[in-house]
Predict the structure.
Amino acid sequence: MAERLEWTFGDRLRKIRRVVGASQAEFADTIQQGRQSLAAWESGINEPRNAVSVAKRIELAYGVPATWTLGLETAKNPGPSGPGQSYTTRDSNPEPID
């Protein structure tokens, strides 16, 4: 049986940032976080002390549900799709973008 890939918090941040077309610096500034912290989160070196707060700021700024950012939604539920749209249904077997 094939092993199911799971997205990390960093994978989700990177996916959102790329879909909205923001650089790490722009994204970090928009969600009021340090640029080095964001880079560390995306690379999996660290995770935020308060991921819920970060997810809520992303939801307010970009319309991506905090529950998706936090990994609380399954593949059948919404995920980010692109600028101008807050979310859409994801594939049944999603994989993080590098």
Observations:
- The longest helix spans residues 9-20.
- DSSP finds five helices and two strands in the chain.
- Helices lie at 9-20, 24-30, 35-43, 51-62, 66-69.
- The longest strand covers residues 78-79.
